[in-house]
Amino acid sequence: LPEHGDLAETIYRRLGPPDDLKALYVSKLRATLSWEAFPSSATVEQNAKIVRSLNAACGAAIKERIGDDEEKDQIRRQIFQNNGLCHHAFFRRVDHQVANIGAGRIVHLPGEGAERQRIYDAVTNYVHSLGSWLAGRTPEEAISIWPAGEEVARRVYETLGESTPVKRWLVACLWKQLQENQAHNGRGALDEQPDLFALPAEALAP
């Protein structure tokens, strides 16, 4: 697969020279990735059982080798924390796990925290823009409250157009869902400056 040469070089560089423990970690990671790729279907259940068995065997062999080494056990545990192929950070987490295996400990990758900041910004900008539209503010009024969200505000207002009862109901549902979806992970400015983004009670009226 010559088109993936850069990826292969990065993986080999991060893994470093092979050894038995790394081989077990990589086998476990491969088994986990294979399991993630299986659709939820009875037709693949037998293959899924094989992958689960391989995953468990690799995990047990790793545990036997590392004993009570807490840091190395973190590497083993992290391999389970990919949250599925649909997760926005799935491949970033795989990159991190490869680097951890190569280093034999938990390491930091360049750009760490950038994706979380992107989510903070996106949630704040969209919640504010949708809320402002519900409140009947003009785009300029929304931007004056939160200048950092200007691009999103203009796009949201242009896309939504004139208010209708159905639009208001759908936008209110989306506004509520966006706030609640990331509440347990933190939402940046929404949490830091709640009064700035508060809506008047009538904004959510039908």
UniProtKB/TrEMBL annotation:
Name of the featured protein: Uncharacterized protein
Source taxonomy: unclassified sequences, metagenomes, ecological metagenomes
